[in-house]
């Protein structure tokens, strides 16, 4: 049985108050485990981004608990809701990797420099940071694009660099919001394949919010959200629901 990396219990987020209050996430409980790829699907406005933002420690839940289990001391979970903003920022830097719809690379920097940034912030010296960033980009088949600027790369290549930037700090959990939405079919599949391979090879846990049916085949589990609540679906059910959405 793979070990838990993160456990959310009765997580709720209410935006606003009184008659205009929106219960964006409604008493959600879930467990994310090492080495698994979990998809979060559901119609627009169902609460996916709100849930991911809370799991990332960027948004305080109205109520509920989020526990992260460090692999080195799984019996001493970290309760995210009890941390200060500074502690949360450190936790994100040390234990989480993020991939977004837009690669959000820094245009002034080359591909390898973009991947070095999280290491430099962690105080690793330039030479070592460059060595590690080059090594990872080479593993991701980007070895011949190390010194290209983001604008000189295709959308798929930019997302590969973003994947490398998310992986370079060896995070426990990778949180991705629509990582393939801007990519064509071939590049979308390659990027998700890459994320899936790394999850399996390195025992990472990946949670991906997506509307992209091409990703279904790469999921170990699908959580389907509707009106702030989670329903578990198999991939055929999810596919039917996605078709129904359109
Ligand atoms: N900052 C906010 N203030 C008030 N209401 C919000 C805020 N952010 C989101 N909401 C509301 O919370 C609900 C869930 O929104 P959320 O963005 O989490 O959904 P989503 O499933 O990620 O949608 P999409 O697939 O379109 O990104 C929606 O009703 C939305 O209008």
From TrEMBL:
Any idea which UniProt keywords this protein has? Answer: ATP-binding, Nucleotide-binding, Transport
Name one cellular component (GO) term: plasma membrane
SUPFAM superfamilies, alphabetically?
P-loop containing nucleoside triphosphate hydrolases (SSF52540)
Q: Return one GO MF term.
A: transmembrane transporter activity
Q: Which domain of life is it from?
A: Archaea
Which positions are tagged coiled coil?
A: none
- Family matches, as InterPro entries: AAA+_ATPase (IPR003593), ABC_transporter-like_ATP-bd (IPR003439), ABC_transporter-like_CS (IPR017871), ABC_transpr_LolD-like (IPR015854), MacB-like_ATP-bd (IPR017911), P-loop_NTPase (IPR027417)
Domain ABC transporter stretches? 6-245
The name under which this protein is listed is Putative ABC transport system ATP-binding protein
Q: Which organism is it from?
A: Thermococcus thioreducens
